[in-house]
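Thread: "does anyone have the structure for this chain?"

Original post by V.I.:
We have the sequence but no experimental structure in hand. Need at least a predicted one for the grant figures.
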Amino acid sequence: MNTETTAAPVAKRVPAERTHHGDTVIDEYAWLAAKDDPETIAYLNAENAFTEQSTARLGTLRETLFNETKGRTKETDLSVPTRKNGYWYYTRTVEGEQYGIYCRRAAQDGETDPPMPEDGTPISGEQILLDGNALAEGHDFFALGTFDISPDGRWLAYSTDFDGDERFTLRVKDLSTDEVLGDEVPDTFYGSAWSADGSTLFYLTVDESWRPYRVWRHAVGTSAEADEIVYQEDDERFWVGVELTRSEKFIVIEAHSKVTSEVRVIPAANPTGAPAVIAARRQGVEYSIEHHGHRFLVLHNDGAEDFALAYTSADAPGDWVPMIEHTPGTRLEAVDAFANHIVVSLRTAGLTGIRVLPDGSTEAYDIDFPEPLYSVGLDSNPEYQTNTIRLHYASLITPDSIFDYDLVTRQMVLRKRKPVLGDFDPAGYEQHRDWALADDGTRVPISLVCRAGTPRDGSAPCVLYGYGSYEASMDPWFSIPRLSLLDRGVVFAVAHIRGGGELGRRWYETGKMLSKKNTFTDFVAAARHVVKAGWTAPDRLVARGGSAGGLLMGAVANLAPDAFAGIVAQVPFVDPLNSILDPSLPLTVTEWEEWGNPLADPEVYAYMKSYSPYENVASVDYPAILAVTSLNDTRVLYHEPAKWIARLRATAPQGSYLLKTEMGAGHGGPSGRYDSWKEEAFVAAWILDRFGIAA
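Reply from O.Q.:
Generated one for you, tokens below.
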């Protein structure tokens, strides 16, 4: 096991008082929120140095794990080309390069199948649209926010972030000349939409709390100073998004909070027109639209907890005419319209699925898939006039696969399965669905994967992963780095706890607000179950989660420290009460419909305080804890895990706590693929060290 050889950093204590609803709290580590204070940076650097020293002897194992991932990955490769308006669009990666290269090639006469060189080398006649490696040169971090090609194929709108703070600079490139225009807009958000003729670009900006709230109209070839605000959302609970429908007939502006939405449209052929509301917002009613011929398809939850599908006139939106009635337990998640078909993405019994309505009729059918555990969804499908859809499919043992599905013949063609180099054989692994019993009698699904023949006598080490917030579902996914754990005898399990969306909207509702503790007790029940079922033992079990899943990690550390040998908390939301009490922080007001408003409601305040990891650190024997964060994270601020680790050390000094801060990255961690592999190798080595596995 890992042994620290020098004393851990000790954060100074500077009492800061917080009083709400008659409750006064002293926070000795609030000073760490001062990002520009040299003492803060010095402390984070000291923690990084301590973490590096404490894990230095794992350097060989980290290098081995990194090389295993690298050796299993086809480094020079390309995505399956997607056809759009006479071009095949795709992304290439090149061995030794961190980022993707975005390309296209004109479709040849009679060409129906995507061109795909088996060696992953450039397709003959390709045009490079953007080279991420060239853009990233000279920067430690690089991310694209928008990559949007105009309907006529001439213009490319793209935006870049070089700090990880998700503030993007928007630019326009003329693909007919490869010239980047002088159009430059700083501080934009994800998402954009083109007018039908490509003359006008719509984009988003954020307010001081990092909330996208304005839609702007920009005429190509003009200065950003002349741009006009098309729509502004003043209700701080709502985010705004913008997109062009697949039919290329409408610009869609969607405003949505956690529980309410409102949609406006502008004819794409009249980009200077005023946005028209489809249906006025009503508290608690969520809906989205998709254009389909003479109508808008409306996916909604009005009297339909798991959502229903309806339509309304595209010329004069009004009443919603039912198409798919609400079925409790079958959660309709998205609708995609094509010229002659409607495709609905759904989930039932904890699994994703695809439903097809041929020719817009109500005679729907579901597409069958072979494995008992899997994840399926629509991939890139930009063409409206098509009878073929592209699907993405994966499982815990099946690598990411791209299929083309013929909506007329109902035939499916595998276009590509992500290569896994070396001796990988799916038959050498097993995947299982198990169920834990929560304290209130609720059955909680668990997905597991391991090497074939792994013993069920409690001797195997296990990683239990969880998230459980925002109705986000942790559907089965394939991971090349995970193979390094499985091949060393580790069982990987996912607890599908309440707060997620795996079992429908009710599963989410019973894991949020004043029912949030169900998320944590479900995870503990899953931990107890995998031990009882013989998958592992408490001293062989490591929990892992990130972001809101990091809140889960901190909560279960307090709730059941005896259940785990180690906990990995990545960009963890471990100081939720202090953050949600401060409406000036990014995202706070929009989060009140997820967690409750502790500023206004003393019951919410008391409830959040009772589970907040930072508020409830105690003098107990905690499992070893590794917290990983990023200085420029705008979603979960770096100081939350920094404060948490400082308080853990001061309150329970007998424990082993490490904090690793990426000093030049954001919420997603390092941006380059090789850097992200190294980060994963660092975490995996720490996990294996908990299990006493050193090679």
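V.I.: this helps a lot. The chain is about 20% helix and 35% strand.
O.Q.: and The longest helix spans residues 673-690.
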